[in-house]
Amino acid sequence: MAYPHSEISSSNIASTDLKPIxxxxxxxxWYGNNFHVLKGVSLTVNxxxxxxxxxxxxxxxxxxxxxxxxxxxxxxxxxxxxxTKISHNLKNIEIVRREVxxxxxxxxxxxxxxxxxxxxxxxxxxxxxxxSKAEEMAMQLLERVGIDHQANKYPGQLxxxxxxxxxxxxxxxMKPKVMLFDEPTSALDPEMVQEVLQVMRSLANSGMTMVCVxxxxxxxxxxxxxxxxxxxxxxxxxxxxxxxxxxxKEERTKKFLSQIL
Length: 261
Ligand code: ADP
Ligand code: MG
Known about the structure:
Strand content: 15-25%
Distance between the termini: 36 Å
Number of strands: 10
Number of helices: 9
Oligomer: single chain
Bound molecules: adenosine-5'-diphosphate, magnesium ion
Helix content: 25-40%
Order of helices and strands: EEEHEEHEHHHEHEHEEHH
């Protein structure tokens, strides 16, 4: 995908073209010997698609999304990111991590580095970009998420919403093929949730392939192409947002929706 560095486009150019970027097949994972956390989860995400992953607390959402960039090993099944298999092969894991951007609930910025350095670190060290090129790109990304005027501040000097927007810019700086979000607004004060969702919305509109764990129903309804529902380590539904919210098939889904809607 040609990566747009300009202002985030408000027109929806996200056309999914059935080129799979993420292919997870029958992924099974145990924590230790006994705790079976993922029980044969399969998911294909095509280029430009936005998939929202929902499910009760403890259902395995974070575990699953972390397997998609090699942060969690799995024992059975297979995962491919744009044709590269995530295996125990460390080289492959390095390749995949470069291609997969991740945004966490707790921002995970480097507290001792300025905003600008947080964004330029990985492109300089992992992509071999020169400092000046990296800074130019970082400033464009920071402008895109509305933080360019705070580039020389430290994370601790920013609000939670601002820090999360920096975390998104930092992930984008690696020009990832897919962005993973694990409850990116759950740690934010309510008044900061929308500013982060707005950045995610714009990113989706620009054509980014995204997998988002979130309980934000409005975002899922408006932005998601598909909603995936995970419960007790099983993938229970994989459907459109309107089917998911208006016409859920499974009892487990109905119960979950009655608790969040
Ligand atoms: P979710 O994100 O849907 O809330 P998680 O993937 O975080 O679920 O967790 C799924 C289950 O796995 C939970 O029961 C959790 O306690 C357990 N779990 C998560 N991480 C670990 C770990 N490192 N070791 C053992 N159990 C874990
Ligand atoms: Mg979680």
